[in-house]
Amino acid sequence: MTSIPGRGLLHLAAAVDQTEAADAGRHVELVRLAERGGLDFVTLDDCPGSPGTDASAVLSRAAAVTHRVGLVPAHTGPLRVRAAVAAVAALDRISRGRAGWRLDAPAAGDGSAPVPLEALWCEADAAEAAGAGEASGPAGGGRGGWGSEAVSSRPVRVVDATEGHARAVAARYADVALVRAANADRARAVREELRAAAAESGRDPGSLRVLAGLLIDLGEGEHAAEPGHGGGGPRYSDLGPLYRGGPVDLAELIGTWHREGAADGFHLTPVEPRRDLERLVNGTVALLQHRGLFRTFYPGSTLREHLGLTRPAHRYAAPRGAA
Length: 323
Hints:
By secondary structure, the chain is α/β, with parallel strands linked by helices. The protein is built from nine helices and ten strands. α2 packs parallel to α3.
């Protein structure tokens, strides 16, 4: 696999949400399919009120039958941040360092009191700090928190940075920023903004991966391309930027955007989960692999390794040998 000079390796992720099913087994099948394609990670949103769809619990099941793919639950709406931190810590232990997580502010009109995204991540940062301190202390040696030997890395932080107000949060806290964009120029502009903001906050901008987010509809093969779709690129829809076309044109789009520096990779949301993920893996990913643009195997075992991110030295962890 080759990397684009100055651009790094291509990263691919996919959502495995299913609107028509609350069956955890179906989610697990999609996770296994994503791993077969060598994707960096999958995401799964919580579905409050739907039995069996707690994202961390479903992905913990997937961890037992997969070996390399990253697992990123998204916690949205009213939640107890410390409970979410604990759930992701457990997922990271079960998966041996393959966990990440996305934390979103409640949507307007869902009945919850408005909570700024910055405040949620600030609380999450404090909760992670507390967990690291407990795990690194004498009584925490066997608990497997962030600071313990049982965990190979702190879970990867993912922030949706599409909206302007979320970008400062992503620049400060995120390892991966997701940006929904319908054209390469827009994606590139946001990526450059995020990297500049990361540098201003004292971070190495190279420690932030920016993935372009697209809905994908591969249902009609190569003949579905319409103006603004297929070879013409995505277009806006009610649900966000949508690509509708075939796997080959999608591979061309991905390769072009990455080569031009618009994104470090892509987070793709299938319109029809099973159908589109199969065509993504068997068509688009296979072609990118054939062209040497995407991995044919996982070189490491943790999500941080997939993304080329170093293990952060948690500033709260106690030094070795500390009482």
